[in-house]
Amino acid sequence: MQFPRSICLFVFALFLQSGLFSQHTSPQSNFQMVYTAYLEKDYELWIDGINGLEAAFQQSGEQDAKCLYELILAKYGLIGYHLSIEEKEVAFDMLDEAQNLAKKLLKMPAYEAQGHALLGALLGLEIGIKPYKAIYLGPKSKSHIEKATETGQGSPSAWVELGNMRYHAPGLFGGSKPEAIEAYKKAIELFDQNPTQRQHNWLYLHALAWLGKTLAETDQPEKALAIYRKALAYEPNFSWIRDELLPEVEGKL
Description:
Elements: H1 27-40, H2 43-59, H3 65-84, H4 88-106, H5 112-129, H6 134-151, H7 156-168, H8 177-193, H9 202-217, H10 221-234, H11 239-250
Helix pairs in contact: 1-2, 2-3, 3-4, 3-5, 4-5, 5-6, 5-7, 6-7, 7-8, 7-9, 8-9, 9-10, 9-11, 10-11
């Protein structure tokens, strides 16, 4: 059984610009680099952010859980990009390392929920590369993502990944667009309750975009429009919504 190709769209608003990289940049500047890359569809800048995060994590003695989380999330995005352009072998070569890093994150108590969420998401991408693995990786992916929401009820990233799973997975493995809507709403609510978690966090914009997209696909264009406007009020330069999703839903009204 093959998951829909859209499973890989999670982070496919990442494309090309350019950016300078120094191993001495701070972790925070690397977070900002990845955030800007997401906004501007800047693939090269995304790569630079990953390189910076890798260097910062090594410099921390592999003890900085926040940096490790951001590094895995960024690699997850890069894997998704390669899948979107049909470079499955490149994506598959990156998966093993990313999954091993997620397992490392699971051992860091403050980020256990995020570790489960990312490991579940990475297993989902593996199914996108090797569809025959769906029968046994599907339940494992679902289990990790549901564990993420159980152990991290206050973690917006756990609910974002639950939304992704509900949206992309077949019904057999827990797919449901109405349930995806509720999961994305929960993630956004948690982000809004703690504005510091939204700062330079592209996952917040991702949740808004996919909530709007799912609403539009379930015949709720007015609600989708409201979500897109909320996203652009927060971040006017979010090109995916500004240039693609918003005009698409406006055309339905």
